[in-house]
Amino acid sequence: MTPFGAKLRELREARGISLKQMAEGLQISPAFLSALEHGKRGRPSLILVRQICGFFHIIWEDAEELERLARISHPRVVVDTAGLSPKATELANTLAERIGELDDVELDALLARVKNAGVKKKRRG
């Protein structure tokens, strides 16, 4: 499941809306909506994200957050390390091989470390 898919399901279930009802409201197939929730489809288009925001009457910061989740929710990520150091290539390949073995605590720690690495570098520069 992707971050967008998890949020979509959370929104739908919190409002007591079935997958079929939501699909009909968005004029898409229930199978497509289910695949989107489960991360079996690619990143949703901005148009679809905005339709979903309209469906749920989501505005302002909440709509921006849903758009952000959509941007980071491509289930098949390609990391291009061409031109980077050998260590960057090793990291990308090791992560690709082992990500399924990491639990949520390890994923949270790694994600925080990677997010903060760029912040620290900018502060020093």
Radius of gyration: 17 Å
Q: What's the structural domain tally?
A: 2
Low-confidence stretches: none
CATH topology of the largest domain, anyone?
Answer: 434 Repressor (Amino-terminal Domain)
**Between the first and last Cα atoms, what is the distance in angstroms?**
37 Å
Tell me, what is the CATH class of the largest domain? Answer: Mainly Alpha
User: What share of residues are in beta strands?
Assistant: under 5%
Counting helices, strands and paired strands, the structural category is mainly alpha
Could you describe the largest sheet, including whether it forms a barrel?
A: none
Overall pLDDT: 94
CATH architecture of the largest domain: Orthogonal Bundle
Order of helices and strands: HHHHHHH
Q: What's the total helix number?
A: 7
Helix content: 55-70%
Strand element count: 0
Which of globular, elongated, flat, extended, rod-shaped describes the shape? elongated
The CATH homologous superfamily of the largest domain corresponds to lambda repressor-like DNA-binding domains
Entry keywords:
125 residues, 7 helices, 0% strand, 434 Repressor (Amino-terminal Domain), mainly alpha
Summarize the helices and strands and which ones pair or pack.
Layout: H1 3-14, H2 19-26, H3 30-37, H4 46-56, H5 60-71, H6 86-98, H7 104-124
Helix pairs in contact: 1-5, 2-3, 4-5
What's the short version?
This protein is mostly helical and about 120 residues long.
How would you describe this structure to a colleague?
The chain has 125 residues and is mainly alpha-helical. It folds into two domains: 3-71, Orthogonal Bundle (434 Repressor (Amino-terminal Domain)); 86-124, no CATH class. The protein is built from seven helices and no strands. The chain has helices at 3-14, 19-26, 30-37, 46-56, 60-71, 86-98, 104-124. The protein is elongated. The model has no long low-confidence stretch (mean pLDDT 94).
